[in-house]
Design a protein that fits this description.
Its EC number is 2.4.2.19. With 297 residues, this protein is α/β, with parallel strands linked by helices. It contains ten helices and twelve strands. α8 (231-242) links the parallel β9 and β10 (252-255). 39% of the residues are buried.
Length: 297
């Protein structure tokens, strides 16, 4: 698969793992098709064409899953894309045309659209958040609040929309919260235990006040999460982290109570990242349709 470019004009995005795409598609088709598509069986299994239409403004994402759905049912299907992954399109845009067997086109329709509408929705909302902080130097992060079974797909869509990925799961980064601090006896002790047990993994530390911030900065970690700080505390946190003796060595992440309207104000305070669960949790599916026949002139 070719790499893709996000709408922000940033670097190319690595394609999703082919094995994961195939597994996602196999599970989705098994769910939808079951023992066989009894409705498609009413159609003559003849050569036919179709076109994919986007009915609203969107950032397009999900081509690998769309293609895999159709090729799983008709390996000889021809799919001609008119847009690239990550392109912004207007309502009424024909995204692709297809040439294949009529029954396979109809059977793959809903599953392929489900992937495209969901992932385009995630990419579109991510792009809006990225645009809101453009020029501030603040990056937009996702979270683990994803649709079950679609984490890799949705996190890929976040990247296509110009955002960055937080940890993939519970295995690839260590994240300390109040329960860990309580168990260890202090924040510094919790950080020391985490470093000793997982020296090769990135360490993120959540702090609840400015004293804990100073303690985390002194103990050292890879990123500090300031959760639910009010604006005055947030600005003071930035000043502390940027000033001597810490000198901006550890980036700050904001989460909690973040919405699109207040995003720029938070970014303007100088934080490095803002994590937003709504990118993947509050999915607005993009309105798409797949119609048999040639596209309108």
């Amino acid at each position: 698969m070719p790499s893709t470019s996000p709408p922000s004009g940033g670097p190319s995005i690595a394609p999703p793992p082919a094995g994961q795409v195939e597994a996602d598609v196999a599970a989705a088709l098994a769910e939808d098709v079951g023992s066989g598509d009894v409705t498609a069986a009413l159609l003559p299994d003849a050569a036919d064409s179709a076109y994919l239409l986007c009915k609203e403004d969107a950032v397009i994402c999900g081509r690998p899953w769309f293609d895999a759905c159709h090729r799983a049912l008709d390996p000889d299907v021809r799919i001609d894309w008119r847009v690239a992954e990550g392109d912004r399109v207007a309502a009424g845009t024909v995204l692709a045309t297809l040439q294949g067997r009529s029954r396979a086109l109809v059977t793959a329709e809903r599953t392929s659209l489900n992937f495209m509408q969901t992932l385009s929705g995630t990419a579109t909302v991510t792009a809006a958040h990225v645009e809101a902080v453009r020029g501030t130097g603040t990056g937009i992060l996702d979270t683990r609040k994803t649709l079950p079974g679609l984490r890799v797909a949705q996190k890929y869509a976040v990247r296509v929309g110009g955002g960055h990925n937080h940890r993939m799961g519970l295995f690839d980064q260590v994240m300390l919260k109040e329960n860990h601090v309580r168990a260890a006896g202090s924040l510094a002790a919790a950080i020391g235990a985490a470093r000793a047990m997982h020296p090769a993994l990135p360490l993120i530390v959540e702090v609840e006040n400015l004293d804990e911030l100073r303690e985390a900065l002194a103990a050292g970690c890879d990123r500090i999460l300031i959760d639910d700080f009010d604006p005055d505390m947030r600005r003071e946190a930035v000043a502390i982290a940027r000033g001597a003796p810490f000198d901006s060595r550890i980036p700050l992440e904001v989460s909690g109570g973040v919405d699109l309207e207040g995003l720029r104000e938070i970014a303007a305070d100088g934080v490095d990242f803002i994590s937003i669960g709504g990118l993947t949790k509050h999915v607005h599916a993009i309105d798409l349709s797949l119609k048999l026949g040639p596209p309108p002139a």
